[in-house]
Amino acid sequence: MKRIIIAIDGTSSTGKSSIARQLAERVGYTYIDTGAMYRAVTLLAMQGGAFSDDGRIDEARLQGLLEKATIQFRANPRTGRAETFLNDENVEQEIRSMQVSSHVSPIAALPFVRKALVTQQQKMGHGGGIVMDGRDIGTTVFPQAEMKIFMTASPEVRARRRFLELQEKGMDTPYEEVLKNVQERDHIDTHRATSPLRKADDALLLDNSNMTMEEEMDVLLRIFQEKTAE
Ligand code: DC
Fold it and tell me: 45: CA distance to ligand 1 center in Å?
């Protein structure tokens, strides 16, 4: 059977990563979380002193750090899940913190960061058999992807999901702060000059505000079967 490229884009906290990971498991493909890569670069900037106190980014410094950095996914032997490594260090937990979440959008808006990560993502997906989730996969990274989904849900539904996820991890962030972060990220992601978040013309719009994961999976598997039978 043809091994295709599945591009899943959409707004933040839509549950893209969970459904993309499950879909990859169901169809035996590799899952690639590109948001984790932008988060890893954000952590690199934070640890490397590329943010000033007022939040400005020292781009020359970050560029130097990025040129020497490695970002990789390695499978956790216990869970089988891919985890993010920055310069050979497991940063999977750290990159999900609110601190990284609130610094990531301006980092993801920098053209040199996008260029470096898109090149790496294109190499990872070469040959197909992947489910890649992000913001620009169907528009920029793989405009030729055979299957494209654009996922969204209302900001309140998304903030609620993120809030519960953070709570589960023992991170106590007020709901209002999570909602504000979701709205701010939407704004920056859709208004940036380089690869703004937008639905590819040939992507299927999936609003999951009132859908269960099972219903979503049914839709995705049906499309997958259609696309691989073609
Ligand atoms: O999916 P996420 O919330 O982990 O993504 C983190 C940030 O990275 C998000 O604010 C937007 C950015 N991002 C991007 O610009 N392009 C991608 N392909 C993936 C994520």
Answer: 16
